[in-house]
Amino acid sequence: MNLVFASNNAHKLQEVQAIMPAGIRVLSLHEIGFEQEIDETGTTLEENSLIKARAVEDFIHRQPSSVSSQIDGVFADDTGLEIDVLDGKPGVYTARWYKMNDGKQGETISEEKKVFGANRAKALRELQGKEDRGAQFRTVITLIRQNDVVQVNGVVRGQIATEERGEGGFGYDPVFIPEGYDKTFSELPIEVKNSISHRARALTELVKILK
Fold it and tell me: Is residue 78 annotated as part of the catalytic site, yes or no?
């Protein structure tokens, strides 16, 4: 089975390819010639996940049958960090939280590593002095296959650390401690993270549908 993962995020692609079972080949957008950016205009994770999947599905339908016939479906994910004491923020704005509501509106950082760092710094600032550091990562995956649209969720509860810890992972991994562990996602071995993460749990639900 050949599925296209509708994301330009190389870290996500590597994680998804490592988690997916044998028999399911995950194609990148680059492999199918999709190079454009997708405007994520939704106000929920569900909406953005669907927008991305639809954009790539439409692109595939415009390709020669020799290409489109080799693809069995498209799936996209949208992930949000939802912090309890912040009423679920940043949520759908997780990837660009650094430039919201802190006097930095309009500032744009182009380098991915710096964006991740700015987002983590904002999380630590927002929770400075707060005892309740509970949070969760939630992933919504949309699968489009033969005009059928299905959405699944994956959630992992945890805590926001008081400082960055670890060198691995990406995004908020250095500040997120998953429930049942005393290490951040960045400190945990990648195989452990991939077995318990929000994305892994959503992919588990996706695989059930694909069987």
Answer: yes
Neighbours of 41 (CB within 10 A): 8
Are 135 and 160 in contact by the 8 Å Cβ rule? The answer is yes
Q: What does the domain layout of the chain look like in residue ranges?
A: 2-210
CATH class of 2-210: alpha beta
Digit-coded pLDDT (tens) for 18-57: 888 889 999 999 999 999 989 999 999 999 999 999 999 9
Neighbours of 113 (CB within 10 A): 9
Structure tokens at 69: 């016939």
Q: Is pLDDT at 103 greater than 50 in this prediction?
A: no
Strand residue runs (E) in the chain = 2-5, 25-27, 73-83, 90-91, 134-145, 148-160, 176-178
Q: Which residue is catalytic, options 72, 77, 78, 132?
A: 78
pLDDT at 101: 59
Report the distance separating Cα 143 and Cα 150, nearest Å: 5
pLDDT digits (tens, 9 = 90+) for 127-156: 999 999 999 999 999 999 988 999 999 999
Cα(162)–Cα(109) distance, integer angstroms: 24
